[in-house]
Structure formats: C-alpha cells, structure tokens
Protein: inositol-phosphate phosphatase
Organism: Streptomyces vinaceusdrappus
Amino acid sequence: MIETNETIDEFLARHADAVSEAVRKAAAQEILPRRRRLAAHEVDEKAGPHDLVTDADRKAEQFLTEALSALLPGSVVVGEEAVHANPATYEAIRGEAPVWIVDPVDGTRQFVHGDPGFCTLVALAHHGTVRASWTYAPVHDRMATAVRGQGAFLDGERLHAGPPEPGRELRVATSHPDYTTDEQKHALLGLRAPGVAPRPCGSAGLEYLAVARGELDATAFSWEAAWDHAAGLLLVEEAGGTHLTRTGEPFRITGDNDLPFTAARDAATARRVVALLAGGA
C-alpha cells in the first residue's frame, strides 16, 4: 500500500500515461460501441427519470476497476455504479488506502439521448486529497489531466482559467432542480441577480473543464458525490481557479459540505458566487 505522498508522486511519474490509456480503452471498448445503439433493456432508472444507468456505465466501470487496481496494488476503487449497488463502498474515500474515484459515464442522460456531451472521469485521491485526475470526452477524443502542483492540461496544452472579462455577465452552470432541496433552490435563486447569467448544467465533468479553459466562469452545484466532482475540482485548481462552499471553505470530497458550493475561474469570482448563494438563502 502507498503510505507517503512522495510514493504517490513517483507512481504518477511512472504511470500517469498508463491511466490515460486505460481510460481511453474503457471508452473505446465499452462506451462508444454502445452510443446510439442502446436497447431498452440496457437502460435503467436509479433514483428517477433523470438518474440513469446503462450497460456502458457498468461495463466501463468494471474495465476501469480491474485496470486501475492492477496499476496500483493496494489501492481501492470507488465507482458510481459499485456504490449504487453497495453504498458502504463509498467509505473507502475516508480510508487509509489510495482510492480511485470513477464515474464511467458522466452525463449518462446525454449519452442515452445520443448527445456528445458526456465524459469519463477518474481521480486518484489519498487521505481525502485529490492527487491526480483524468477527464476524457470520448466523442471528441479529448483528454484533460491534472496532477496536484504540476498544472492542468488538455491534450498536452496547459490550461489557464484566468479571471472573467470585466463588465461581462457572469456565466454560471447550476444544479438541475431535481437534485436540489427547497433550501438549496432558494440559495440558487441568489444567482438571479443583475450581471449573472445562470443556466442548467450538463455533464459536471465537462462543466469543470469549461471553467478550467475559461469558457465558463463558475459552477454552483448542490450534491456531493465525489465521482462527479473530484476530477474536475483538481482540474480547476491546477488551471488557477478555486472552489468554495457557502461557509467559505474548500469543498471536501469526504463530505459534510455546506451546499450549494462553487468552482470558479478565480478566487474573486468564487467569493462573488458564494455571496450570492448566501444572499439567496
């Protein structure tokens, strides 16, 4: 088992490219062949009509679980579909072993509808800190990666989020109403303010990538599932952005966050979004 951050750094120096290759293979073998070819019996609802799972999700997660565990002996995998089957699996995020956090198809609803707006998310965390992440958009064959302290990259090109242009409306992607409590809905109403242009989010992973690229100013999300956030939050951080909960603290993948929270291109934007969310509440 890896016991020190230095050892994880050494692992990433040797095997980060192998992780990227595993993610690409999972998409090529299990996801893309099923795109626009799903039969009715290959799509199921979980919590409701907007919370879907397909054979592509299950097969890709199985592929990645086997591949990532083999790359890093002693690690554990927390995947969205495994946690759905056994919620206790999620506790590994708070454990001592390095943990792979996997969302095999982030944006399953878009995938089911044949849209290209989905991605595969993988993050490597240890002791509650995300150390590296991979965000892969398979339809466009674009891979975004980040290693803590080493920057964020899209297809090898360094990402810099940068501050929004002065005087322009703030573009914010927000949680779908189906995934918010009444209190969170009220908080999100704070974004309906002059100079702010909120819109419903798509794939969380792709929204985080848009923030890291400076194409989106911020997000405002109301759920904690680590597989949706871990990879993207590191990507935003390493591109120069930041993330805050309504109490002004960084989002914790281990949970117990004050929601909604934001990830933003820069600290000033994050503080502005948090203030609006607090005002809405």
Observations:
- The first helix runs from residue 5 to 31.
- The chain has a mean pLDDT of 92.
- Residues 136 and 143 are 4 Å apart (CA to CA).
- The two ends are 44 Å apart (CA to CA).
